[in-house]
Design a protein that fits this description.
With about 325 residues, the chain is α+β, with helices and mostly antiparallel strands. The chain has 11 helices and 12 strands. It is globular and about 70 Å long.
């Protein structure tokens, strides 16, 4: 179909067919190849959801969940809001990878006694208004980060801790750190209070995981690595510490045992674009007398070897 007719600026990245027709958009234009049809009666601009080049698979799944939410948003009714995995993605939280054929569509909850959603591609839930807080500062109604976390007791333990770490991250000042002073999405106290506010699916897992949530973890792989280290009986390292040699800044390191001068650095896919900078940073640390353990995805998947290297470096 023709794409020659520009869409009105008043239409967002996704919109209802009736809304477009009221603005004078013809039916033929709404069948254009540049528009997606995510749900009955809705259209979405294909260009708004273009994947990034060489996209990380975790980022890709988060993007897909966000796309689903934005595409469905025009159909939300009063009292409905995004929840569970959809809310986690909207808040930027990490989630485990699932097979593409097992990705459930958008999660929509109804607050209170209103009718549940009945639509293909929607996982429906009911929220208790006594226990759920809904926020709209993302432009759509979404369960608050604390409410979202307590909806996720079905996640594997490491993933639940990583999501809590993300929501509770403190944006501390430091050398070259972006967004210093940015508000936390949630606090550990808020997560703990939400667990105790009422019955929760997976409550025992939530109660266990909250004891492992920290404010200074910057990535889900760091969270998993820290959990492995502590579960093995090793001391808990300090997280994301700026290291100096006198007045010379050496670099920020994921995990540190300062009394032993041992640093642990997770090198994931995100480091590919900064490989040269990371090489020099770790070289400075070693030159200053630090033992640096570099952890890759392959090493993280081999806990006995990983933990053995840390035990030996610490001299235990």
């Amino acid at each position: 179909m023709s794409r020659s007719q520009p869409l009105p600026d008043a239409l967002g990245s996704s919109f209802a067919v009736g809304e477009a027709q009221a603005l004078g958009v013809r039916p033929g234009r709404l069948r254009g190849s540049d528009l997606l049809r995510p749900y009955s009666g809705l259209r979405a601009r294909r260009s708004a959801f273009a994947p990034e080049h060489d996209e990380d698979p975790f980022a890709a799944q988060r993007r897909i969940r966000v796309e689903q939410a934005l595409a469905y948003a025009p159909r939300l009714r009063p009292g409905q809001y995004f929840s569970h995995e959809t809310a986690a993605a909207l808040w930027g939280g990490p989630l485990p990878l699932v097979r593409e054929d097992r990705v459930v569509g958008v999660h929509v909850s109804t607050l209170g006694e209103g009718p549940l959603v009945r639509a293909a591609g929607v996982e429906r839930h009911r929220g208790d208004p006594r226990f759920v807080r809904v926020r709209t500062d993302l432009g759509v109604p979404v369960a608050s980060p604390a409410s979202t976390w307590t909806q996720m007791g079905h996640l594997p333990f490491f993933a639940l801790v990583a999501l809590g770490d993300c929501f509770c991250r403190l944006w501390r000042p430091g050398v070259g750190r972006p967004h210093a002073g940015k508000p936390q999405l949630a606090t550990v106290a808020q997560l703990r209070a939400d667990i105790g506010a009422g019955r929760r699916l997976g409550a025992p897992m939530l109660r266990e995981a909250i004891e492992w949530v920290r404010e200074d973890s910057w990535s889900p792989r760091e969270s998993e690595l820290r959990c492995l280290i502590v579960a093995a009986g090793l001391p808990e390292p300090l997280l994301n510490v700026d290291l100096f040699d006198g007045s010379t800044f050496l670099g920020c390191v994921d995990m540190v045992y300062p009394e032993r001068k041992v640093a642990i650095e997770y090198l994931g896919r995100v480091h590919a674009s900064s490989w040269g900078t990371d090489v020099e940073r770790l070289a400075r640390l070693r030159a200053a007398g630090w033992t640096v353990i570099e952890v890759t995805a392959e090493l993280l998947a081999d806990p006995p070897e990983l933990l053995g290297r840390i035990w030996r470096a610490l001299g235990f």
